[in-house]
Amino acid sequence: MSESVKHVVMDEAAVRRALIRISHEIIERNRGLDNVCLIGIQRRGVPMARFIKDYLEEIEGVKVPMGILDITFYRDDLSMLSSHPVVHSTDIPFNVNGSKIILVDDVLYTGRTIRSAIDNIFDMGRPDEIQLAILIDRGHRELPIRADYVGKNVPTSKSESIEVNLKEVDGNTEVLLCNKEG
Description:
This protein has helices spanning 12-30, 45-60, 78-81, 112-124, 167-170, and strands at residues 3-10, 36-41, 66-69, 100-108, 129-137, 149-153, 160-165, 174-180. The strands form two sheets. The protein has a five-stranded parallel sheet with strand order 3-2-4-5-6, sandwiched between helices. By secondary structure, the protein is an alpha/beta fold.
């Protein structure tokens, strides 16, 4: 199935502004950064988490632990993906027990990716709290999951998709609304 671009939802400057706003909201909601850790979901959640981490450290002057999470083997649709799914690394260099984890991902759609990530985190330990930071919330939830921090709400139809491109992964930064074809 191919896709055609309908329009640009966010350019690089808008993505940057959204991540800066999310960073400030994280500080406000948590009354600082005590015990706050970030986990970026592979692939595009990782550079977003890195940006937020760097910005939080710059404005608050404290170190913020950050981890990387691959949820491939926690997906409920693993058997439908591929006989050889691409697995990326997971690296959580801190103890999740008792921490406030901010889970970071690019698009919130059905909620299944986030459920998989939460299952994975609970296999590592028991955090005090898990919060969710998302660049785009496109609706169509199948599970009772909501984001605590949202860059932009983009209502979509099921015949549309959201494509997030980040410089670190794709060479350029933008968010596109696409029509599914085929």
